[in-house]
Design brief:
Layout (H helix, E strand, L loop, with lengths): L7 H12 L2 E4 H11 L2 H11 L6 H13 L5 E4 L5 H13 L6 E6 L2 H9 L1 E3 L6 E3 L27 H23 L5 E6 L4 H16 L1
Helix pairs in contact: 1-8, 2-3, 2-4, 4-5, 6-7
The protein binds zinc ion (ZN).
Zinc ion binds next to loops.
Length: 213
Amino acid sequence: MGPPGAGKGTQAERLVKQFGMKHLSSGDIFRAEKSSGSELGEKLASYMDAGQLVPDDVVVEMMAKAITQVDGGLMLDGFPRTVAQAEALDKQLLEANSPLDAIVVMVAEDDIIVKRIAGRRTCPACKRGYHVTFMPPKTEGYCDDCEGVELTQRSDDCEATVRQRLEAYRAQTEPVIGYYRGCESLAIVDVDGNLDAALIAGEIIEALTALEA
Ligand SMILES: [Zn+2]
C-alpha cells in the first residue's frame, strides 16, 4: 500500500519474480471483468463509463472472485482502497481460511511524488517513455527515436491532478493502513519510498523472507 507514485508497481514486479506470487492488480481486474461482458462486468461498466466511483460491494465482489481463483501465494495491489473494503475482504478471507500474512506500506513525500509523476513524458508516435529529470531525451521535448515528434504528458499526470489524487489517497486509503496496524496477526513492513527502488526491494524481500521462516 502507498500513495500513487510511491513506486508500488515497480516493487510489485520484483516481488512477484522473487516469491513466485500471483500479482492481482485491481486496475487490471476491473478492465478484464469489464471487457468480459459478464453481469458483474456490465454493472462495473455502468459506473466506470459514467465516471463514477465503483461502490465498495461491487469492488469486493469482483476482487473476491479473482482471489478465490488463485491457487497459491498472491499479492494485492490497489486494493483494498477503503476501510469498508478491507473489512469485507477480511471476512471473505476468514471464510476461505486464508488470511493476509503481511502488508507492505510505502511512504513517500508529496513533493517527491509530484516530481516523479509530473515529469513523465511519452512519445505519441512510438510510445517510448521519458522523464524530464530522471530519463530526459537528448533534445528537450522531443523523442530520441522519432525525428521532430514532440513528447506529450498524460492529463492525469499534471501537477494539479497528482495533488488531487494524493488528497483522495490521504482521505480514503491511508485509514486502511491504520486499520491493518490494529490487526495483531498481521505483519506490517514499512519502507521508505523516497529511496532507490533496488534498495527498497532488498528491504521488502528481507522482511518477507524472515516472515516465511
Ligand atoms: Zn518516438
